[in-house]
Structure formats: C-alpha cells, structure tokens
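Subject: Predicted fold for Calcium-binding mitochondrial carrier protein SCaMC-2, 518 residues

User T.R. writes:
Posting the sequence so we have a shared reference for the thread.
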Amino acid sequence: MPEDDTVRLERLFNKLDHDGDGRINVTDLAIALKKRGVDKPESQATLILTDSDTDLSGDITLEEFINYARRHEKKLKLIFTNIDRNHDGKLDLNEILVVCKEQLGIEFKNETEVREMIKRIAEGEEDTVGSAASVNPHPKSSPKKRGMLSKRTLVEGSTSKAATSTVKNSLAMDYTARPDGTLEISWEDWRDYLILSPHVDSLTDVLRYWRHATYLDIGEDTAVPDDFTVQEMQTGMWWRHLVAGGFAGAVSRTSTAPLDRIKVFLQVHGKSMGGLRSCLKSMIQEGGVLSLWRGNFVNVLKIAPESALKFMAYEQGKRFLKGNSNRELRIEERFLAGSLAGAFSQTLIYPLEVVKTRLALRKTGEFKGIFDLTYKMYSKEGFKVFYRGYLPNLLGILPYAGIDLAIYETLKKYYLSRNNSDTNEQPGVLVLLACGTMSSACGQIASYPLALVRTRLQASSTFENYSMSGLFKSIVQNEGLVGLYRGLMPNFMKVAPAVSISYVVYERVRNMLGVEMT
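User M.O. replies:
I've generated the structure tokens; pasting them so everyone works from the same file.
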C-alpha cells in the first residue's frame, strides 16, 4: 500500500481509537457508525470486528485495520470502476443514471428529477469519521458539500412503497460541486464514506448500506411480500423477518377478532342484523363474550403457510421477470410479481378462508371443531365448497394493493409539501402510520364489494346457485348499493389498531430475534 494511504489509514485508526490504547473495539466502531445514522450500530460494528480481527483477540490492532481496509477498498474500487463509465475517476449524474437503469432497473425521467433529490445538503465540511476532509492527508482543493443521510424508508429492492426512493436518497452522499454546477462523486469520497460498511461486495450492497437509517413502512401492502438481500438469505435473517411478521399478525388478528366477526355477520346477514351495536349484542347473547373470537384460530393458523407460499412464489416470480440479467426489478415489476405471488398463495390456502368464515358464523354447539366442520362441509357439498367465492377474492387483490400503494404515496407527498419538507425526506413513524391507515381504508373501499360477495358465497349453500355477477345483481336489487358495503364500519375500525399492534409486536419480536433492518 502506498505511504500516503498508510498515513491516511493510521489517522483514521487513531480517530476511531477513542481511548488511545492502540486498539479499536466494538464500542469505538459503534460510536463512529452511530454518527453516520446507521441503525443498530453495535451489530454492524460486530460484523466489522469479525472481518478484521484475525487473531480473535476481541479488538483490532493497527495492522489488522490496515489489512482489512486494503481488502475492503479493493472491493469498493471494483464497484466504483463499474459505475465510472468514462474512466475519469469521478462519478457524475449521467453515470449514476445509467447504472440505476441498467443494473437496478430504475429509470428517472430527467436530470432535474435527480437534482431535486440533493436539496438536503449541508454546506461546509462535516467532521465525520471516515470523511476525506478529516483523514485524507491530501484533501482536494475544490469546494465541497456533504450529503446528509435522512432517516427514511429506503427499502432497496423491496415492497416498500418508497422503493424508488432508495436510489434517490443514495445520491445524497458526499459529492463535489464544480463551478458549472455539475455534481460528481470522487473516488476518495466514495472510498472514505464506505470504509466502515461491512459486507459490501456489489452495488446492491452499497445501496443497502446507505439505507441503514430507516423507519419501518407499516402500510398494509398485502399484495407484495418483503424482499431480502443476499446476505439476509445466507445468514438466515429472512426467516426471522417472517417469524416476526407472523407473530405480529397473530397478535394483531387476535386483538381485532371481535370486529372481524362482526364484519362477517353484517356482510352475510345484511340489514337483518341491524347495526354494529345490535349485531354485537346478538352475538354475545347467543354465545357469550368468548364467541366473539370464533374463527380466529384458523385466521391465525393460515398466517404461516400463506407467508411461506407467498415468499416462495415471489422469489420465483422475480427470477422469471429478470431472466438471465442481474438487474434489479422496477417497481411495477415487483408489484406484478407480488400480486401473482399473492394470487398463488391465496389459491392454495383458500379452503382455510372458507372454513374460517363458516366457523365465524356457526352457532353454539353446531360443530365439534374444525375437523367436524370440514368433514360435514365436504360430505354435504363436495370439494368445490372449499373454493366458493374464489373468483371475487382473486379479483380483489389488485385493486386493493394498487390503490393502497397510490394513496399512501400521495398522502405522504402531500404532508411533506404542506410542511415545506424535502419530497425525498421520510416523515415520522406516526405520520407513516396515519398514511398507511388511510391508504388501507381507501383500498378497502375500492375492493370491498368483491370482499362482501366473496364472504356471502363462502358462507352457505344458500347462494350456491348464484354466480358472482348474479349475486352482485341480487344485492343491489334487494338492498341497494349500500348493501355492497355492509360491515364496512367495523372493518375500518380495526385498521388503525391492527396496523399499530402489528408495528409494535413486529419491532419487539424483531429485536428479540436479532433481526437487523437492512
């Protein structure tokens, strides 16, 4: 390694060595990572220590740090060179646009759109560990601006409703502003910014590092499953995410089960049940308070197979859409893959949906249990009973997810514009909760008539002679258009608590399992 690089790394080492004992420990690294806004800095610091502590002493010597930096910077140089198409040693906007389109599958309309992403830039030098200004013995003479990483949902390659924002925010890192206004990132800025980024082997990994300071997007995006990075797949973090989500779903569904059962009753029995209060009173009189949770066990039981099937189908769908290329999918492609995955999982677990509806509607003592109900359904109505209402259920997936996604982004942008915030900035968790709740409600309004028809078809052989269109016509003729929205109020009432409970439980279980928000 050249002498200048050795001096640079020695200065960085000394800056990281807070107690001056000639060794860097996890605490030293965590402090530096925390300054960068990295989520779970202690865990990330442990990864760096594992990569560099060759003698397994529990800390890093100067020699170990230099060896680690040498290996790490070789990888960073390869990625930098891959983006630097004109080989001038700098990354300009055009090169970034090209690599985003070709390798990440994200295309921006024009350069102005990209420039707008870089509004939140602080003037002057940032005394950040690892920056060129603080450790480079030969700083550049050109004027500098430091990009500030904002806390936002940057779910690179994911179902997040801010998926495109991943790359947009990534551009707001260290860069040089030339006199003509052209923005460019030098090799030194790139190297110094990513020197403390563990497990960076590709451009995708770089984007993953840029998005460590995040908020969890808790909008109910039911059609598109979560994406997982290569590292998460290899280390087993993917199943921990699924387990955390499963626990969150189980607690959330159980907490709101009474509202769900009221909804089913109002959907099936219509105006004969009266309003929400009379329906609740009738159910308690018939079966007691515990009857409000009828059907909940099956509703919780189907979480695991549905999540696993959706995840498997989503991964296969992404591979099919990618073909032989290594690019990342565009948002619309992810939405398509996620919708198809949702349809696939719903097809296989749909019999449980029918059983859940029948259990929710049963009277006290009518069935001995799930197996007794299933046997009687099959004996009386045949196998086709388990797919009654399947078509409206399938047709309801796309409008719900699509409208939910569009409304969520619209509300978020409206909030930011009203508060004079950068449109690339992410609002706080409470705002995201509100946006997710309202967007989910709008999605429900659009798809609710299909959900109501599905539930009525599932409920009883009374409607076995009706087709989907025939039942629609019958409801409108007998109950008017309002009949298509029976039970909508309790459905709305459960959205906010369901989203909030899911968020809290997911975070708790995620932390218990040691899952990183990467």
